[in-house]
Each structure stands twice: as structure tokens, then as C-alpha cells.
Amino acid sequence: MELMVLLNALVTRLLFVLHSLIGVWRVAAVKKEPKYWLLALLNLLLCLETGLTLKFKQGRGYKWFSPAIFLYLICTVPSLWLLEIHHGTQYCGNEPGAVQVNVSNQDFSQSRNSSHGSEGIDHHIIQTAKVFVNQLSTICETVWTLALHQTFLLLLVIGRWLLPIGVEITRDQLSQLLLMFVGTAADILEFASETLDIEDVRKNYALINAILAVWTWSMLQFPLDLAVQHIGCKPTVSPRRIPSLLLCRYSAELWNIGVSLFIQDGPFFIVRSILMGHFRIFNQMLVFFTAKNILVVTLQLYRLAVITLDFRATILQKSKKEVSC
């Protein structure tokens, strides 16, 4: 069992590092400057975290927070920022791309034939790898960026699933958390792709940075496990301390409401409202998702009111019982 825990911990972090390095490779290829490979040094933080976790936690997770997920965000988000900022200068042409792929396939066949006749299997493997990388480089940059966004969010969910859990979280709670993350990831991907694909947005550098900042802010909920874990009321908590009692009883519900209002749906609604109100940008999907954000925020406020009223009724009922006794 301990071997599987260590294996899951190592494999998951290895996937994080590989995906981060692919992002750095794309940045260096797009910018055509080797200095961007320095972004790969951020993975040293993840390697350090891996060593510390294996030594002090035997590969298992921490309570309420996942350092591996957080460091994966640190390693990958800068690359996606640079790719999205560079996105405006990238254009896709169907015919040139097709020609490049055909040439690559021809080179692949030639390298395979020549390797069999001369330098053997090792040379063939190296040549095949080079041709494969060249073929990947011919893919349109906008496709690469979208694919990195998609795989990034998928790896966050899959990685959280594969990472060994700590003793403080149960498998039932983990399954609830993963289901929440799937829906959250879909909303975040839709927000980034739908807003950044608008032509008028691409012409405004400050607006791109603002959208990416909100996108980055929304990603910070993934390292946290508070959505399914209750803090729990200590015996020393006095019934007269209403805020503390409310927080410890409904910590998970209040966290979910706070995430929706201040990290996800609230900021998304503000950005979309600015796009429509100030910049006069309108399209069917933008209007629909703005309405969806309004509905979610309204329901979350309604949920908060219900929790508060229910808690207040419980406190009043207990107070009446104490007085009658």
C-alpha cells in the first residue's frame, strides 16, 4: 500500500512537470528566444516539494491544502500568460500548414528508410523523435494554446484524483471535490476561451491582462479542499459567539458561497458586464453566460440568507429552551 502511495505521488508530479515543460517549450518556440527556457526552473520548486512530502508525509497529502497543485499552477500559469499575450500575432493558414505536414511525413519516411540501411535502430529512434517534434511544431499556435488550456485543467482534476489523500479527507469527500472541480474547470475554460477569442478584446492589451488576471485568480481554488471539509465546532466555543459558531457549523457551505461570489462567478460577471457595458461588445454567448453568472450569484446569496435564517432560528430555539429550564 505504501508503495502505491509513493508511486502515485511521484507519477502525478512527473505529469505536472512534463506538462509545464511543454508549455515552456511552446513559449520558447513562439518567442524564438532561448531565455524563456528559464521558466523551466520553476519546476525546481515542485521537485523540492516532492522531496519534502516524501520525507515528512510519506507521500500523503496535507489538510485543506495541496502544495503540489499550487506549485503546478505556479509552473504553468506564466507560460499560458505569455502564449495568450502573444496570441494576437498568430494566424493560422490551412494550406501552408498542410504543406508543412506533408513535407514532414516525407522526411519521416526518408529518415526511416535511411536509418535501416546505415546506423541502425538507435539512429532511427532519434530521427523519428526529431521528425515527430517537427510535425508538432507545424500545428497552429492557437490550437496549441487552447490544447494547453484544456490539458491544464484536465490535469488539475486528474492530478488531484491521483495524489494520495491525507488522513483528514475521506474518499467520499474527495469524490465530491472532484465533481466540483470538473464543473469549475469547464466554467473557467469557457470564460477564458470565450472572452479572449473576441476580436475587439484581442486589440486591447490591458483588457487581455485583466481577463488573464481574473482567470489566474479563479485558478487559486484548486489547491484548496475547504469545499468538502467542515472545520468542526470545538467544545470550548461559546454559543454566544455567533460568528464563530456559524463558521464552524457551515464552513463548507460558506466556503462554496465565498468561492462563487468572490473567486469565480462574481469576477466573471464583472468582466463580462464591463465588456458589454463599457466596451459595447455583444454576442449571443457573452449575453448568455452573463445571465448565467447573475443567476448563480443570486442563488448563492439566497443560499446564504437561508443558512443565516436557519442558524438564527436554531440559536433562538436553544435560547428559549435555556430560559424555560
TrEMBL record:
Annotated keywords: Membrane, Transmembrane, Transmembrane helix
InterPro entries hit by this protein: Transmembrane_26 (IPR019169)
Transmembrane segments annotated in the record for this chain: 6-24, 36-52, 64-83, 204-220
One Pfam family matching this protein: Tmem26
Official protein name in the record: Transmembrane protein 26
Organism: Tauraco erythrolophus
